[in-house]
Amino acid sequence: MTSTEAATIALQDHAALCTAGEIRASDVVTAACDALVAGLDTPSLRVLAACTRAEADYGIHDLFPAALDELGLTFYPVASEPGQEAAARALARRMLVGELTPRELTFRIHQRYGHELPVAERLAELDDEYDVLPYGDRTVDQVDAEVRAEGRRLAEPTDSPG
Length: 162
Hints:
Layout: H1 3-19, H2 25-38, H3 43-49, H4 53-70, H5 81-96, H6 102-113, H7 121-131, H8 140-155
Helix pairs in contact: 1-2, 1-5, 2-3, 2-4, 3-4, 5-6, 5-8, 6-7, 6-8, 7-8
């Protein structure tokens, strides 16, 4: 994967996570800066990258759609099912690179979406399995391995940009 491809995926993930309330708006500004450094360049991306941390919380939501559109990416409205799926996929990718533990991934998915997001239903079920480990015959390592496998499945590229 080229650095521009990685930056594109990271920017899409940051946008989905921010819209879902998982990360701060200033994290999206940082991702926009990283995208510029990686070689992506559009007028709206430059404006987004130029936001200060103080401006980010108030200004980027107006800049998101144009910056993403110029790059052929998707802006997901708050609470839309495609946006929730994109955020779940982004969280799975974060777990796979070590930014979240398997337990943290399942907890965040279960806490945010319960058992209501079909694409991430198995992760919510696995969160329940962590809770009953002391009463069963499975180990943390076994559940972690299943979470990683489910995370890999979830993180696989889809037909949409997100």
